[in-house]
């Protein structure tokens, strides 16, 4: 898989996590711990995307 394809896949996962997080935040049964875990996962993906994009640009 090319680096650009991998970055695209990570963007898709990030967007899916965004939707999952929005749904969890609107659902009263979601716990703060679940929401925090989703936010951390989303942030890790964003950090990896940023790192790979900088690596690709160099």
Describe this protein's structure:
With 58 residues, this protein is mostly helical. The chain has one domain (3-57). Helix content is 86%, strand content 0%. The protein is built from two helices and no strands. α1 packs antiparallel against α2. The longest helix has 26 residues, at 32-57. It starts with a helix and ends with a helix. The relative contact order is 0.18. The model has no long low-confidence stretch (mean pLDDT 94).
Q: What value does the Rg take, in angstroms?
A: 14 Å
Biggest pleated sheet: none
Net shape: elongated
**Number of structural domains:** 1
User: What is the N-to-C order of secondary-structure elements (H for helix, E for strand)?
Assistant: HH
| Structural class by sheet pairing and helices | mainly alpha
Overall average pLDDT: 94
How many helices? 2
Kindly report how far apart the N and C termini lie: 19 Å
Quick summary:
The protein is mostly helical and 58 residues long. It has helices spanning 3-26, 32-57.
Summarize the helices and strands and which ones pair or pack.
Blueprint: H1 3-26, H2 32-57
Helix pairs in contact: 1-2
């Amino acid at each position: 898989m090319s680096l650009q394809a991998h970055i695209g896949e990570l963007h898709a996962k990030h967007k899916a996590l965004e939707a999952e997080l929005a749904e969890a935040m609107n659902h009263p049964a979601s716990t703060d711990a679940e929401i925090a875990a989703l936010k951390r996962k989303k942030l890790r993906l964003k950090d990896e995307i940023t790192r790979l994009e900088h690596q690709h640009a160099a």
